[in-house]
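> @MW can you paste both from yesterday?
MW: sure, first one:
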Amino acid sequence: MKKLSQEEQNELLNILEQRFKKNPTRHPNIQWDDVLNKLINNDNALYNLFQMEETIGEPDVVELSNSEGKIFFIDCSSESPKGRRSICYDHEALESRKQYKPEDSAVNMANEMGIDLLNEDQYFQLQKFGDFDLKTSSWIKTSVDVRKNGGALFGDKRFGRVFIYHNGADSYYGARGFRGILELS
């Protein structure tokens, strides 16, 4: 695992703290000091968050229902993170393309970053805190039964509501990426 320099760590923590304070409705029952205490000696989490930030995910703490006592960072960029677009769903889908392969897949990128894709419930919960993916869409964690039939799920928000759709897992578009989630332990 790579470790951030002290300068990178300080800069990241400053960005995360400012974003946390700017968006209190995302985490009404969580205090920054509690988040900071979990981050301070957690090099893995700091590096994962650094990668989320570097790919324009704008990670912030989001208080999910039924997650009492847990702290989650979720990509809160208004649109699907720019540094994670034009990718298919997973490695199997990437390998199945004979031509015009994208550079990577959502599942692979998430694994390399040490984060997970949002699932459908988490995507719906995120949308309660703002308008996300009004012009883009984001791959979401897809069940095995959908995936084994060649499909994958993605979500977006249009006309004031959230939609979950399906597409071939090997498809990719310039406006589709993925949103990640990181649980602090």
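MW: second:
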Amino acid sequence: MVLLTILFCIVLLVLLVSLVKVNPFIAFLLVSIVAGLLLGIPINKVTASVQKGMGDILGQLLIIICLGAMLGKLVAVSGAAQKIAGVLVDAVGEKYIQWALVVAGFIIGIPLFYGIGFVLMVPLIFSVVYKYKLPAVYIGLPMLASLSVTHGFLPPHPSPSALVALFHANMATTFIYGLIIAIPAIILAGPVFAQFLKKIPSEPLATFRAEELPAEKLPGAFNSFFTALLPVLLLMLTAFFPYLNIKDPGVSKVISFLGDPSIVMLIALLVATYTLGIRQGRNMGQLAGSFTDAVKDVALILLIIAGSGAFKEVLTASGVSSQIAAQLQSFNLPPLLLGWVIAAIIRVSLGSATVAGLTAAGIVAPLVLQNHINPNLMVLSIGAGSLAFSHVNDSGFWLYKEYFNLSIKDTIKSWSLMETLVSVIGLVGVTIINLFVK
């Protein structure tokens, strides 16, 4: 009954957005309220769950997306994106530009959360798309596959790191196994799968489109790369700080503050305001206008993501994840497969990879000890399951859809299937490794 209710709400959401043409934010609010009532949340607490879900997800992403949009706009209008695209193509050739972006996405994805990596890399993707008139989905999706794989498989990302702790696995071993699985998953779900997506029409978000400037007006290559990638550099530096064995609590607090993604984005934007703005002859009035335009362009995206957060919170608050897990526990499946199945079904039902992973971990944890299952592989199996079939109840789905300006149908054909490929390839990889390790 619970699964039927969730399925009904998801179908209702899709019909409201695609058939009735209701604004996605309003559709999310309506469906969230309906879901809360049908799943037994007291009527006086439904709106509180909706508000909490919106606040939780915007609290994480609002500053990052807004500052990221401002930085991306500045990178675009200053000509830095044009310069970066030109340098990349000169280095690897237009034929291999997709692979260059995949490698960049993988390197960047290791230290960065998915949402941050997405916001930072979108301007680079679109600069290549606009300059060389290439299909946006074909060029962009493989890089996003890299970000997704690192988010689901590799520590130090939150979900795999938490699973390592829960299963008492070894962080380094999990990372090595995850790396072995990640490479074929990225290749197959990225560049190989993208070969079938060249005809998907896409007019990416206008905020990252800028007029092509003559070569003499472009910023230098170092300035362009350094400024665009400064958030990545700062986050990587703070990520490696714990390994320096500096025990001064004052220094640790300062590094922790400076390593917060919101502070990193603010620092990067301030630096870019000088290096790509004032230094290039723009005044603060012009820059302020560009920043305002950037925020206007992502305002609807923020509302849609808030709506997806409301829907996720209603499903979580109703306790459906526990009910689903309890029903699946009776399945007579091998533990590694069971972990993947539980995580995948909760992911499809609730939309949150982290909730799916942690819920599945709580269910299968006793089986890991009883059956002497390799805990490192269980981390990766659940991590793979938690990425399965991202769709309309996942904020990542809407982030991709709105930035790339796609229909729901084309988003499912590209994004949802890419995530599912990553998930299934991850399970296959875990199964193969399990044949050779004990």
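> thanks! The chain has one domain: 2-436.
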